[in-house]
UniProtKB/TrEMBL annotation:
Residue intervals passing through the bilayer: 6-22
Family indicated by similarity: Belongs to the cytochrome P450 family.
GO terms of molecular function: heme binding; iron ion binding; monooxygenase activity; oxidoreductase activity, acting on paired donors, with incorporation or reduction of molecular oxygen
Keywords: Heme, Iron, Membrane, Metal-binding, Monooxygenase, Oxidoreductase, Transmembrane, Transmembrane helix
Positions that bind heme: C454
Highest taxon in the source lineage: Eukaryota
Translocase among keywords: no
Cofactor(s), names only, from the UniProt record: heme
One Pfam family from the record: p450
Protein name listed in UniProt: Cytochrome P450
InterPro entries, per the entry: Cyt_P450, Cyt_P450_CS, Cyt_P450_E_grp-I, Cyt_P450_sf, Cytochrome_P450_monoxygenase
Coiled coil: none
Amino acid sequence: MVFTSTTLVWLPIGIVIFYVSYQRLFHPLAKFKGPFLASLTGYWRVYHELKGDLPQTIYHYHQRYGQFVRVAPNEISTISPDFVDVVLKGGPKFIKSSFYDGSGDEKPNIFNVKNEALHKLRHRQMAPAFSVVSLTKMEYIFDRHAFVMIKKLDQIAKSGRPVDLTEIFKFFAHDTNGELSFSKQYHLQEQGKLSLWPPMNVYIIMGNICGYVPGLFDPLQKLGPFVPYLRKFNRSRDSLVEDAMKNATIEFEKRRVHNVEATFEDKSESRINLLTSLVMAQDPESGEMLDLADIAKEAISFVVAGSHSTSASMSFLFAALLRYPEILKKVQDEIKASMSLQDNSVDLDGEFLPSWAGLQSKLPYLSAVLKESFRLYPTVNQPLARVIPPSGVQLEQTVFSSGTIISASAYVVGRNQKIWGANATDFKPDRWLSEDARGKDKYLLHFGQGHRSCIAKNQALITLWKGTVAILQRFKLSPVDREGEQRVVGEIQLNAQGFAEPTEPLLVTISEQSRCMK
Ligand code: HEM
């Protein structure tokens, strides 16, 4: 067939007109409002991902259009409480959407696997390692790194120079999570160089972009060697894969091939950690174990999912404490009034660190502050996206048919006035101490909800709580600007590229205070 030049001009124009008309007028989701470009292409979200304002933008559209906003040709974002009750807590019939294929993994891990039977098996194999009982036995790892952080802050306090707390938390969280997941000592805290921090967020950003535009992963891989950003991503991935394979092989040989028993009591470096737990993980029903490739793959997902998310959560918490000095004072007073030496039973080289047992219940006000920080400044704002099953589903008064993707972001749900009241956007920890808060925990989506929620929530909380209390027990923090002058901290803004973190560094000077302890 020969195309005339007129056909060559009009054919693409015709296809575009047809596509736009279909998406805007005839698509089953055409009746839902949202940004025009989002109804046509996933690149709308890619643009906002790279700009770092996707959750804020989606929130803005929810304020304008209400409960449901079309954020992609086949996806509706919602702030409806029903989403939590019906979809996230609705069990395996709501499978994860194609967004989770963004990492391009041939073999999925527990986080991105869509096959619910395989997820169930992995969860049964791995959940025991993340139980409080098991993590408490690994408490020495959390303590070791909290201890190094305290010593480092001691030195900084003596020097009088300002420090950016976001960096301190990055090193602390990655040293802790890296040892737990990879059996590896990263020593980032001692070396104190941000350049040594593995660029895990690049991993998340790439996963998001390829999740928003299905099918983009392979072409981007081909461009990899020519685009600096993609080269950085490939380097980051390769070094994580290398570390994971190396350490998983050592652990595998030791525990499975040579049957070296892992004990919690062992005082050597080979004591039990998450990697050991993965090697030993067994389905309680069938006895099935993970193979070496699976172990390495899961360990990588722990590092990618765990280090930046934990440090950024800690940064947001401290950003809020510094922004509201009266809340910071109340937290430090609570620690002083409630914590005794016995509660700080971990003694490392004369330094007492808070032990995990009962820590949250001893400090209800700090618990409330942390929840409020999770609510307004969640670090994981990726769409919790699920596919509507063949039976369809009703949310509020609206029926969604099979195959539609429905999603929510923690940031947007955390600001829904229908759930949190007229002062939803105000930082008010006291709301968690009132009767009104009863039953509202489930609408906090920073760790997700339901059977696909964060398997390592306890691990993240132990890191966060221990680090936070150890710092607040010892130091007085004063926010300063880049010149070292005292300053008042302004509104907290999120940079939501990949996992969100505060846009501003958390510069403070620190001085020692008498130990906040009874
Ligand atoms: C404060 C820190 C953390 C936050 C805010 C966080 C947040 C989340 C969220 C929101 C999900 C659900 C995602 C979804 O439904 O799409 C999730 C799942 C997951 N997280 Fe975390 N996470 C944190 C720390 C960690 C750590 C430390 C690890 C590993 C060591 C980890 C490993 C995982 C895994 C494996 C899943 C998938 C669970 C499943 O599907 O069964 N996370 N996390």
